[in-house]
Design brief:
By secondary structure, the protein is an alpha+beta fold. The protein contains 16 helices and 22 strands. The protein is globular, with a radius of gyration of 23 Å. Keywords: Signal.
């Protein structure tokens, strides 16, 4: 977010209006009766573990939301109950930073009373160390907004090998200065990313230690972690509410129960018994939608847009997907109506024909590969395949996660493409390792079902990570299609250099269309959040900045059992 507030598109404004609360639309977010109280234990029921507890490695909406409880960055998203949750606000820093005249140098001043979990004060050296550590090749698989933006970061081997990065200066304990490769007016938003988390510069922090035992700068510390089973957070006694305008840290404790089956979670949330009255979860199954219509469950239901795009990434380095006509054929062949049904129907997803979702400012509405009722056009697909020399079709391997919704989507794609003589083999990947595998070019296959949510709602955090040639990395690669087009790369540079935000937003929307003409990906759906909370949950707001999940920073309970 720039120093000025983001101008929200109508799609985002509508999405925020839908993010409601656990009170049947009651804007107070208090679950319909009673205010949030301090104390108690809040339970989170989940199917899988987080990808990484180390913010240098994890990078998705769910884990970023979790990170907000144990880590702080220079800036962060406003809380979910704010008038504009998409706004970036100061966190460890006193303000949104001061740029020089051409936005290539940014200076931040740290607040007073900010501490690690051992009581030591957080200094500018700790912020610097955290960023430098995140650039170490051994762990640099998370957010790319340090590697991409900081001068010299491309050749830098991390603090353990190369010492300090020259483009970060710490003139005193409270001041940190970043020198960028090129002008970037959104740097205030970039430093809200997890890779800008501080860690003790003079501590025993290694590339592996944080994933096993995080060092908290936020309101909670990890007191128990059994991978795949349990995560327990308890209060950080050195966190100061006075230095934190975002997190309210209502519960005394958070307990994650991991590895549960989706249907089991839905049963427990609907039944609302025992500790589950104090529980929250993710999106419910499509098969449970009819069961949540009962009034007592409806008043505990939250609905809203995730602000993300689910898409099929086509590996443009693999034959025959390196042929644009083949990729265009796939774009025509896919029955998106079937994919929407597989996702849960209109209640859980809208059909997507553009990469940029409606929640992104500058979104343009278009459809380059139309078909009757979005059911696919296998005839057109076969014509293009014949022109490309594949009249008899070909075989394609599709990476997918081992979760019911993704499996249903993959099977739908498999059936669609079979009608165009494309034989799809499903490659099932463990969910906890999925993003790491498809983000490692040497490990991915021909195609993958992926999703992307903007780091802040502009095309600048959507199209470059997915389609810019310079963002193809050996690991931590978000350009899963490995798309490297000179015209597109040049246009991205031109848009980033624009000083008029409205002009830039419009240009990103137009570039979306230009990219899809080359068909490196097939937009499938814009998914929605539908979730049920326990009856004792209060202040539950869906947050578009965290993939439509409940904002952990402010949620709590209505009452605490004595």
């Amino acid at each position: 977010m720039k120093k000025r507030n983001m101008v929200l598109g109508m799609g985002l404004a509508a999405a925020l209006a839908l993010t409601g609360c656990s009170g049947g639309g009651d804007a107070s977010g208090d679950g319909g009766s009673g205010d949030v109280v301090k104390g108690g234990t809040l339970h989170v029921l989940a199917t899988t573990d987080f990808s990484h507890l180390d913010p240098a490695q994890g990078w998705d909406g769910g884990v970023n939301n979790f990170y907000r409880l144990i880590y702080r960055t220079l800036t962060t998203y406003a809380p979910g109950n704010a008038e504009d949750p998409a706004k970036i606000v100061p966190d460890l820093a006193t303000d949104l930073g001061t740029p020089n005249e051409d936005n290539t140098e940014w200076t931040f001043t740290l607040k007073d009373d900010i501490f690690f979990q051992d009581g030591s004060e957080i200094t500018s050296e700790d912020v610097r160390f955290g960023v430098e550590r995140s650039l170490d090749p051994a762990i640099a698989v998370g957010s790319p907004y340090a590697k991409i933006l900081l001068a010299g970061a491309d050749e830098y081997g991390g603090v353990y090998e190369d010492g300090h990065l020259d483009s970060i200066e710490t003139p005193d304990d409270k001041t940190i200065v970043f020198h960028l490769k090129e002008p970037f007016a959104d740097f205030s938003s970039a430093v809200a990313q997890p890779v800008y988390t501080p860690f003790p510069a003079d501590g025993n922090v290694t590339t592996k230690s944080i994933d096993k035992q995080p060092i908290s700068s936020g309101p909670y510390v990890v007191t128990d972690y059994k991978p795949g089973s349990t995560i327990v957070l308890e209060r950080n006694e050195y966190w100061e509410q006075g230095s934190d305008e975002v997190r309210t840290a209502n519960p005394d404790k958070f307990v994650w129960t991991l590895g549960l089956d989706n249907s089991t979670i839905d049963e427990r949330m609907i039944a609302d018994q025992g500790d589950d009255k104090n529980a929250i979860t993710g999106i419910i199954l499509a098969s449970s939608l009819s069961r949540i219509q009962e009034p007592s469950v409806q008043e505990r239901t939250l609905e809203g847009l995730k602000g993300c795009t689910t898409y099929l990434a086509l590996n443009t380095t693999k034959e025959p997907l390196n042929d644009v006509k083949v990729r265009q054929a796939i774009s025509y062949a896919i029955d998106k109506k079937s994919v929407q049904t597989a996702t849960g129907g209109p209640a859980l997803a809208d059909i997507a024909n553009t990469m940029l979702p409606p929640s992104v400012t500058g979104h343009e509405d278009f459809d380059l590969y139309p078909s009757d009722e979005n059911a696919g056009d296998p005839k057109k697909a076969k014509e293009l395949l014949a022109e490309a020399g594949y009249a008899d079709g070909f075989e394609l391997s599709l990476d997918m996660r081992a979760v019911p919704v993704t499996q249903a989507q993959a099977e739908s794609i498999q059936e669609s493409l079979a009608k165009a003589n494309i034989d799809v083999k499903l490659n099932v990947v463990d969910t906890a390792k999925y993003w790491q595998i498809i983000g490692t070019p040497s490990q991915q296959t021909d195609a993958a079902i992926a999703g992307w949510c903007p780091d802040w709602p502009t095309g600048a955090t959507f199209l470059p990570p997915l389609f810019e040639g310079s963002q193809i990395f050996d690991q931590g690669n978000s350009n899963v299609a490995q798309f490297d087009n000179d015209e597109v790369n040049t246009r991205m540079d031109e848009i980033r250099a624009m000083t008029d935000v409205d002009e830039a937003n419009k240009a990103w929307g137009a570039l979306d269309k230009q990219i899809l003409e080359s068909a490196p990906a097939v937009p499938l759906t814009w998914e929605k959040t539908v979730t049920v909370t326990g009856s004792n949950i209060a202040n539950a707001y869906l947050h578009i900045g965290y993939s439509g999940g409940i904002d952990y920073a402010i949620v709590g309970v209505k009452s605490v059992d004595e």
